[in-house]
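To assess whether ligand presence alters the predicted conformation, the chain was also submitted together with zinc ion. Input:
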Amino acid sequence: MIQADYGSIEVRGAREHTLNDIDVDIPKRRLTVVTGVSGSGKSSLVFDTLAAESQRQLNATFSAFAQNRLPSYGQPDVDRLSHLCAVTVVDQKRLGGGARSTVGTATDIGARLRLIFSRAGRPSAGYSHAFSFNDPQGMCPRCQGLGVVSVVDETQLVDRDRSLDDGALTFPAFGVGQWFWRSYARSGFFDPSVPLREYSDEQWRILMYAEQGELKAPNPDVTSYEGVIARFNRLYLHKEADAFKDKTREAFERIVTRGTCPDCGGTRLAEAARSSLINGRSIADLNAMQADDLVDAIRAIDDPSVAPLVKDAAEQVERLGVLGLGYLSLDRATSTLSGGESQRVKMVRHLGSSLSDLLYVFDEPTVGLHPRDVHRLGELLLELRDKGNTVVVVEHDPEIMVIADHCIDMGPGAGRAGGTVTYEGPYDGLVKSETRTGHGLRAPRVSRDGDAVRTPSGHIRIEQASTHNLRDVTVDLPLGGLTVVTGVAGSGKSSLIRGHLPAVRPDVVMLDQSPVRGSRRSTPATFTGMLDPIRTLFARATGAPAALFSPNSDGACPECQGAGVIFTDLAFMDGVTTVCEVCRGRRFKDEAQQYLVRGRSIADVFEMSVAEALEFFTEKPIRAVLMRLSDVGLDYLTLGQTLTTLSGGERQRLKLAGELVAGGRFYVLDEPTTGLHLADVDHLIALLHRLVDEGNTLVVIEHNLDVVAAADWIIDLGPGAGHDGGKVVFEGTPAALAADGSTHTGAYLARYLT
Ligand code: ADP
Ligand code: ADP
Ligand code: ZN
Ligand code: ZN
């Protein structure tokens, strides 16, 4: 078939980050897959150039009023971008929206169900608002549509052994010296130096429970007196812990405990909405069903007045299943979803949209997906294309590369050794090409041969686990081996390992993709501890104090306090960062930059990549850390790159590098191949083996079949997801799993191995 030509988006002279002044064409209304080792520049091209420029131009079309409220995107470093279209970025950022955001609201399926119930539900509850827990008409009055009620634990809000002056009020906003604190301590009702437990009953009541305006304080400066609990309930109780920063948040979580709302049973809905039924089911019943079952329940609604809505809603729910999310229910809070799940939920919403001629960009959409579901994900990408959109996907999975209309391979290496287009064209050519991707695709696939499998030195038992969907699972995890836990998404892998392992093995180290604390000023150098020997080296060689060579100490640029950037908080948006004009992003004050070791300043060192630093440093303690960073595939990172710019996969591997110490430890890794190219996966596997050989135990949750094949022991969960999963369907070696072939993982492994 001859395909129509819709022209191309032309990128000319792209130089963002490490891009090497490159030109590429991205065919419109086609599926383009961008490949290459990690750090080769895929994101710089797709997200930081294409998507950023489209976003910037879109924002420029808004009124000045709106623009003032939008983050200002800097112009990407590129000569020209022609025929660009409006962009939608479907990434792995968690879905926000707090407790009011659910799978139902995020996919728009919830809105369709509400319309269906408002027309066909009996008795009728009214319009569709009456079925929305985010609308005053529809929400349960007791919990305000949150499904949970909060209870204040008084014993955590005050310390009765202390006096007011001594910090008896433990919530930070009520702390000593704060305005609220003054309204109690200086009210004239109490002696602020007396411990609370010595208060009379009346004083206790006044301190804790007096309503606003009920009492006039003896001190006329305290204009409106209100008890601690009354004030806390009014100002804070309805908020979510996420709304607060560190200390306040910790205190809040200690003080407020949450439980299912007794009125609505957690369904969030008011009485009228809960009692309106279709086929004997309420909207709350449907919201609680897992998507795989919900499809049939929706299809069974045969009221002709809602037929088009039913068809639409059923199709949307079906897409959840196709994307391997059939185990989710619509009432599941989006805050509990993983990055990969979040990305696929967003994808469902876009597939239901009728807009066309958009540019969709995806960031590794197969993350978290079992090989069984990757194929179907590919079909949905093609569906999005066939609705008239241009789809660009950054991806490492060969199953997605193979269906691409066009491939762009970045490389040849990472960091400054990358940034070039090494191949452009159809998949067939990519496989044959002399690129690392081509080599990776041609490499033979083998499993760990039976004799090579390690004998465990003992076992750790998880007994009768039954969190979420787990059905009384008992497993023995081998000590001193590499165990891979497999199973389709939603089968219960995280529930089992993350949920139960810490109870039986408290010293387990979970290395995941979550952000690193305080990471706006953290860098690979500070995070790994490598800065200490580097500072010592500079101090010894120059005679200046070591603190001068730290961007978090005396050496800091006074303008940006060593961050290199100035961060502006925007109330309702992601903040904006701009490069510090004083140090021009170098973090250090001039004085620190005057001292040189082998011709380089400390600021120069921060700009070196790990690979360059390995050539520069001869000192053992510094090299040891650099080698570890290189081992985990991060040799392209600069020592001073802000950790907030790292992807989830890079963060996880950085944590791994920061942890690598002498043996005897127990590590859990959650999909460590995220963001890794085929060639990088080989390195990662070698590293995992070395860790085990050094006496550590590794449990890895993974879908990547190369990692599965490299395991000593496999625990396969399933057979399906949600209530169809939660059981151990296979335990044994990779060879036995492939030979058995009765499980999804076994079947795919057998097919994969040559
Ligand atoms: P990929 O997506 O292929 O993994 P990236 O485009 O993320 O690669 O990175 C290419 C290079 O640009 C790497 O050396 C990376 O460290 C660097 N880089 C990426 N983002 C930033 C940033 N925000 N600031 C500085 N350097 C960056
Ligand atoms: P996997 O790790 O294999 O993808 P999970 O352990 O995340 O599987 O999920 C197993 C089951 O537990 C699924 O039905 C999922 O919807 C449910 N589940 C997981 N986390 C939560 C949560 N925070 N709240 C409610 N249900 C959850
Ligand atoms: Zn309620
Ligand atoms: Zn500065």
